[in-house]
Predict the 3D structure of the following.
Amino acid sequence: MGHQDRLWPQQNCKGRRCLDCLGFSSPGAIGSNGIRLTTMESALTARDRVGVQDFVLLENFTSEAAFIENLRKRFKENLIYTYIGSVLVSVNPYKDLEIYSKQHMERYRGVSFYEVSPHLYAIADNSYRALRTERKDQCILISGESGAGKTEATKKILQYYAVTCPVSDQVETVKDRLLQSNPVLEAFGNAKTLRNDNSSRFGKYMDVQFDYKGAPVGGHILNYLLEKSRVVHQNHGERNFHIFYQLLEGGEEELLRRLGLEKNPQQYHYLIKGQCAKVSSINDKNDWKVVRKALSVINFSDNDVEDLLSIVASVLHLGNVQFAADEQGNAQVTTENQIKYLARLLGAEASVLREALINKKIIAKGEELVSPLNLEQAAYARDALAKAVYGRTFSWLVNKINRSLAYKEAEYPSWRSSTTVLGLLDIYGFEVFQHNSFEQFCINYCNEKLQQLFIELTLKSEQEEYESEGIAWESIHYFNNKIICDLVEEKFKGIISILDEECLRPGDATDMTFLEKLEDTVKNHPHFLTHKLADQKTRKSMGREEFRLLHYAGEVTYSVTGFLDKNNDLLFRNLKEAMCNSENPIINQCFDRTELTDKKRPETVATQFKNSLSKLMEILMSKEPSYIRCIKPNDAKQSGRFDEVLIRHQVKYLGLMENLRVRRAGFAYRRKYEVFLQRYKSLCPETWPTWDGRPHDGVAVLVKHLGYKPEEYKMGRTKIFIRFPKTLFATEDALEIRKQSLATKMQAAWRGFYKRKKFRQMKHSAITIQSWWRGTLGRRKAAKKRRAVETIRRFIKGFIYRNHPRCSENEYFLDYIRYSFLMNLKRNLPKNVLDKSWPIPPPSLVEASQLLRALCMQNMVWSYCKRISPEWKQQLEQKVVASEIFKDKKDNYPQSVPRLFINTRLGNEEINTKVLQGLGNEAIKYAVPVVKYDRKGYKARARQLLLTPNAVVIVEEAKMKQRIDYANLMGISVSSLSDSLFVLHVRCEDNKQKGDVVLQSDHVIETLTKIAMSADRVNNVNINQGSIKFTTGQGKEGIIDFTSGSELLIAKAKNGHLAVVAPRLNSR
Ligand SMILES: Nc1ncnc2c1ncn2[C@@H]1O[C@H](COP(=O)(O)OP(=O)(O)O)[C@@H](O)[C@H]1O
Ligand SMILES: [Mg+2]
């Protein structure tokens, strides 16, 4: 199954480190944070690539090569953790792997051991959970060579608890102190060695106390075997304890001045034995700051710190104390300055100190004997003092830290004070060097003891499990190393007893006499050899001063040189005395007066260690153990390098093969029935897809179907036990194949299901949208109706109240009426001046309507006027004048109204040229043919009437018959009837004038209007009823009588008057 068509929830793939990419492609549980978890079984199919994650699943479990190959495969894939059952094997990666984040911590929290890939956190969490649920004390034993990662593992476990454990009232401080005690202990107890830049030079057991809620509330530390010799000597490439360099690098000027120190480590003999005071990978200045801060967190007052640093400084000064021999060969101090500083820093008397350094005081038969020391002895005494001071101060420091970590029981009511304890042991594993001495002997002895514990506890728990599962106990063949422990620690016959005896014996005991004694006492022991006891062949590989122990993990050859001295750890009495009198409070506590008075010899180092170990075993025995075995992949502190020789050596001395053998003696694999059935049920038709009966029976059916042979498995009460990994692998492979076909089926089913689900979803959505839309439409319609009803109601109300003053009942109506009137008006405005239509306004708008109407008219007139041409204007002016003169006064006026006035009725061509010449410049404004009636006989004669700017001219052909200047035109008379006669009255005084003229024009209104206007006689047109009088040239008078008749008749009447009958017009 590839990544694409995966059936199972897919997580983010992070490339090579992704477990899926490593072949863990089968389904796994999903962690609370969504990270894919793999079960151990899931990883089985990836075994070719990344090996098995539990060594018990190695087919060839007795083969060291297969073991190492599995480690190598995993190491190459950055999988540094592997189980042997519940033992965790860890290979130092020498690089930061991103597997310690908070997310990782969460992933392991509360998860069953085998559900997740192997990790330190799984061990930590498992122990913590057992502690909480079973309320049984736990311990985690971490062992391995120097540089294998023990201390890192310890720190990581502490961090895990600090992050994941619940918080209790005062827990924050305890958590801090637990974490902060580390840098302080490391400063004083760690050093750069060839193997590890931060090598712990002491063994450490740390208890963490948890309260009933599971919160850490206290702690306690036990320390073992501080490597004191480092204070005075370091091998090439190694350093003294970090604190010395940190103080010199980081200490403030003022502090260093007080301590009498210079900033340069090269000044101090004790710091330069290894010739590498400066190391690039270590930042002493920064570390100093960390330590100073940590000291305050763990309750150190300024005074405490000052006292402590005074001691550190005094060790440096002590290292610089030099001697010279006097004549007798006795040592004398040559460096007074150093003595002065020492005296000040230790609060001792300079002279006492000086004397104590060069003399030896012994008590023989109750008398004090003082004897001088030679140079060699003095140097020895000085170094012994430095070691003692530093070593005891270290113990004091641990005690002081313990006080600050102590669980304050009194602060809790008793029902809450029941605590459980989780111990962390960080101690060197087997040490096998080219040259092994007393220290290696102690350490390896410690490891034998731990192996004893492991065997006892593992076998015990195995046995318990078998019993509780009701499976017959099958004896396991394993090597019980009790015989070696006894060889070392047995009373009287053990190596330590013999060593002590040699140390205490009066006389000339030496390392060699000790070896002889050993040979005598334990010569027949199968695990003990010396040069003398060995056979010919083996003897070649041993020196005469050596003895060899066949440890369970392998053989180690020890040189006895220095054993007695180191075991005695002697400090001359007078130096002790000087220290007892010290005023430095720490030194004072470290050197107890009772030591001086006590007659009994102090316990030797080996015995002390034996006792503390036996105490430790007791502590550990009372707890449920977990194991972490650390392996260093190479000596160069390099990442990615897998040095097989080195690793084989460690696998051997860590006893891992032996671990595996014990673990695998019975069954390789065991699981609860539920878990087993759940995983493999698909392999059997009867159990797939569900098994309704008891899981126990389901598994029975399942394994029968799978064809397990009876010797391959056992059915316990709650678990199935499978003896060989290959049985499990076969099952796992079958599952893998089965999964392919299941996946196909499930995919098909899933697709069908998915599509149906999707369809149903869409259908549901469509219905939802439809109903929603219908609802919306309905609501809109209802709202519209409501609004309509409201409007109608307002209308009716408004109509009823329409004549009331404006009030809430009618305001809407009135506004509406007003509005609609105005809108209607806007649409129906009169189109032109003659259009008199106008909508009828509502009562409230009558006045406004009138104003608007006037405005509108004004506007139309104005725009009409703007459009009038000059000719038309003239026409209209003339028409207006005509109207003023004739309207309602003369009968034939109405007929003239619709006829346009013509500019002139005779063109210039119709007028005789002589006349035109006669007029000269005078232009003819108007010309019309007229009939002239003689003044006497009223004979009608055709004439032309011309109007110039100055006069009316009567023309007959070429003759200008009469010219009447406008000034002489007195008036014009005309009848009110429909005739077209008129009289021009001329001024009489003028002799040249022939008198008034009687004329007739077919266009009488036009002609008279033009004459009146040209001559400015508009007001002098008389319209007469009945008759008109006129004068003739000689002052005589004529009369024209007008009557109406049926048709026009103009003739001289009998009375001499001119009688005019004008036809009656209908309009009148
Ligand atoms: N899990 C780890 N991941 C990364 N580096 C590690 C790890 N464990 C150890 N180291 C490296 O190895 C060095 C030595 O580890 P340390 O725990 O001090 O060894 P030991 O206590 O066994 O002597 C550390 O300083 C660190 O650089
Ligand atoms: Mg360490």
Summary: The longest helix spans residues 725-800. The CA atoms of residues 315 and 386 lie 6 Å apart.
